[in-house]
Specification:
Bound molecules: guanosine-5'-monophosphate, manganese (II) ion
CATH class of the largest domain: Alpha Beta
Number of helices: 14
Strand content: 15-25%
Structural class: alpha/beta
Shape: globular
CATH topology of the largest domain: inorganic pyrophosphatase (n-terminal core)
Largest sheet: 6 strands, parallel
Strand order of the largest sheet: 3-2-1-4-5-6
Number of strands: 12
Order of helices and strands: HEHEEHEHEEHHHHHEEHEEHEEHHH
Length: 356
């Protein structure tokens, strides 16, 4: 029923790789999000059912609101369990890389992975995968999420019937979080065909949405109020905004990983707004994390490649800066100046004019 996006040859190759592997390690990107953990645990469930010895390694901690997933407690955190991670990587005959396009997104673990001689399969939806680093690549930037891609691969292998309830929950979670709960990147009708298939597996999508979205501390709610009231700088002519949060401010609101989730989207609620940029001092490393969100055609990925040592998707991208917060803010101003013309043109008004 789904429009096929995997050729029979690709499906056959993937099947052969899975059939020939016994010890599989699944990896996702640093600071894993719902799609990274959902797709990793979804594939983990699938391969376990196929009788494989499977482990998921994440470069570092993932937010509390993803810990409800079955076997989330079995995900090995590389930064806390390096010896165990190295042993698993060395003994793996297959490494599956999910939801990232370049080994640099694994931070320190990337160097370790690049030295391993086993097969490396990339399953991802980011643009421009680093082709030199993988044995086999299934990259579909047009899809909403890596979770959607994993479902479609399982479908192409003829195994949706045997997909477990837990895998259905995991894959739903990633599709929901990577589309802002179906508010962007989610117009493909097939996405809803997949969701109806997952609902048939018995998942309670409303409960999953609540588990992810309503799982914060009171401090986080107050933090949002603080950011929007005290910190948000709006550039009305540019239809853009910036907020920059320092470590001391995070401490004031007892910040835990995940507390920044979604706040960068909020300025896009302003009528005609095109671009939201957030800067946050990392709590562990001396660097600034950059998050950007846009609507329509404004290319956050290009902006992040040009100015913030990063990349991502057209409407959601990020990066890092190794400098002081004041310097980072100056870089944002330079970026806004560079993209001024694109930002100043008001698409909404233009299309209204065109229509009349
Ligand atoms: P977030 O703003 O939620 O941290 O990240 C949004 C998206 O931007 C991610 O899904 C990922 O595609 C991309 N991204 C975030 N940080 C980086 C980075 O440091 N490097 C690259 N290449 N992409 C990033
Ligand atoms: Mn993703």
């Amino acid at each position: 029923m789904l429009k096929p996006i995997v050729s029979p040859q690709e499906a056959a190759k993937l099947k052969k790789i899975f059939d020939e592997s016994k010890n599989v390690v699944i990896l996702c990107h640093t600071s894993p999000d719902g799609d990274a953990i959902g797709s990793s645990l979804g594939l983990y469930e699938y391969l376990k059912r196929k009788g494989k010895n499977v482990n998921v390694i994440a470069p570092n901690y993932f937010p509390d609101f993803l810990h409800w997933m079955k076997d989330a407690d079995k995900v090995i955190l590389f930064d806390r369990h390096k010896a165990q991670s190295y042993t698993l990587l060395k003994t793996a005959d297959l490494i599956c890389c999910l939801d990232f396009n370049d080994l640099s997104r694994l931070d320190e673990m990337g160097t370790a992975v690049s030295r391993m001689h086993c097969r490396r399969v990339l399953i991802d939806h980011h643009l421009n995968p680093d082709k030199s680093k993988f044995t086999f690549i299934i990259s579909r930037p047009e899809l909403s999420s890596t979770c959607e891609l994993v479902f479609r691969l399982i479908d192409a292998l003829g195994d949706v019937k045997s997909l477990s309830f837990a895998a259905a929950e995991d894959l739903y979670a990633g599709m929901a979080t990577d589309t802002g709960f179906f508010t962007f990147n989610s117009n493909n009708p097939d996405l809803f065909v997949i969701i109806s298939e997952l609902l048939r597996k018995g998942i309670d999508k409303d409960a999953i949405n609540r588990k992810i979205q309503n799982n914060y501390s009171a401090d986080r709610l107050k933090f949002i109020g603080y950011v929007l009231y005290e910190k948000l700088e709006i550039f009305p002519d540019l239809h853009a905004s910036l907020f920059a949060i320092r470590k001391e401010e995070l401490a004031q609101f007892h910040y835990v990983k995940g507390d920044m989730e979604g706040i960068v989207n909020m300025p896009l609620q302003i009528k005609g707004h095109k671009l939201s940029i957030a800067l946050r001092e990392d709590t562990e490393k001396p660097l600034i994390r950059v998050s950007t969100r846009s609507v329509d055609d404004f290319p956050c990925n290009l902006l992040c490649e040009q100015f913030f040592n990063g990349g991502g998707h057209k409407n959601a991208a990020g990066g890092t800066l190794e400098c002081s917060m004041d310097e980072a803010i100056a870089i944002v101003h330079k970026a806004l100046e560079t993209w001024k013309d694109t930002l100043m043109s008001a698409d909404g008004e233009k299309s209204k004019e065109e229509a009349s």
